[in-house]
Design a protein that fits this description.
By secondary structure, the chain is α+β, with helices and mostly antiparallel strands. It is built from four helices and six strands; from the N terminus they run ββββαβααβα.
Length: about 110
Amino acid sequence: MVWGGISFAGKTRFVIINGTLNAQRCRDEILDPVAIPYVQNMRVGIILQDDNARPHTARIVQEHLQHRGIQRMQWPSCSPDLNPIEHLWDLILLGRAVRNRVNNATTVQDL
């Protein structure tokens, strides 16, 4: 599993997650080293949006974000169409699938 963040100003580094992600690992391996510093380096008024996965919505994570002064967007669960990173994942995966496709086409019609 990987985690990454995007904004209008740029992107975070990818975090590779080995094993199962729980709330404590989310806080220790994603939020503290990557997400919170990224948000804090942005302009005032930035709101963190996640995908409503259980580790992101756990009380320990919510309290940690609040303690660090990070505002989290509240939005309905099961709404991936509202999350822009879901569309980015689609583009990345589609692009990778197209690049990895073996294609021996020699004419436009074959292509």
